[in-house]
Amino acid sequence: MSLRDVAVLGSGMVRFGAHRTRSNADLARDAGVAALADAGGLTLADVDEAFVGYITPGAMIAVKAMKELGLTGLPVTHVENASATGLVAFREAAWAVASGRARVAMAIGFDKMNDMMRGGGGRGVGRDQIDSVILPAAYFALWAVRRMHERGTRPEQFAAIAAKNWNHGARNPLSDRQADHEVTVEEVLASPKVSEPLTAMMACPVDDGAACAILAPKDLVQRRHPDRPVVSVLASALQSETYTPGHTFLGPVVGPASMSRDTAQRAYEHAGIGPEDVDLALCHDAFANEELEYYELLGFCGEGEGEKLLEAGETRLGGRIPFNTDGGLIARGHPGGPTGLAQIHELVTQLRGHAGPRQVENARTGLAHLVGGGSVCCVTLLHRED
Fold it and tell me: Is the pTM for the entire model greater than 0.90?
């Protein structure tokens, strides 16, 4: 069986936000139950293997979380790849099914970033590592300033991306940030400065949450759900960075830009399609300027043409290639472990035609992209079958 013979049987998630009185296990249970219900009323006894993604420091959390869903003896594997964790857990589950090792596999992710921020679960790092002196906000701000210098990009253009994603998130009941009005560029620019030129509204929030996807062979999905579209896996590419002259590679936040370009190209090649065949994309937008870079790196426009694509309205709902239709990391939120699985949930919802006021018309193929510190990139392509 190939990866293209694997489909999503069920998906579910818990709304991202501040779940101060709930544990990781609580959140995982609710996301898992939602996905099992969406899969047609399965129980954990129907699942052959589970891949559990989380960043939260702590031993045995994966197994403890799975115990909330049942004690069936299934193999449980902890997956951790920074912000890309959820997409990597999904990839592992898909390949477990494609290999024949599992008939039904679960990918589940959870994290409580609010607890990490309060409790300081971090580990000491050496002073020779760039991560020890440059935080993500500063790192991406430097990336933004460089683009402004080299391309003439204006802060208003970064703000336009953030406003778009806030407004997309307002149409998604599972997003953290849900503005009660149309967010404007001026409002984004006027929010508190995080790191020049990035403001608070251009940055993702600190979140808790969980999400889950269940995968199975396409024929099994078709039999269990003959009344709804089958969403299959076209490709899932995962790469770490390769050496790039001039790039500081000792402990970088997300690696060189070429990592996203190369990973996307590999995913397109495996799927036998190109960016022109993709109807919507979800990308790593922890900070708004990232999304602008990924317009180009994921192949949706030429180098230096991201601003033109943005200003033409092509990346918002109703445009040629809507980006971050669920609000992205900026509005939907970014708890870490479950973020990639929330992207999968949005793609499945869109490709089934169930996205309501944020539905992309005639959506057939969707892309999910995340980068993770260390550095890795994962790009996954899903497709609605005829």
Answer: yes
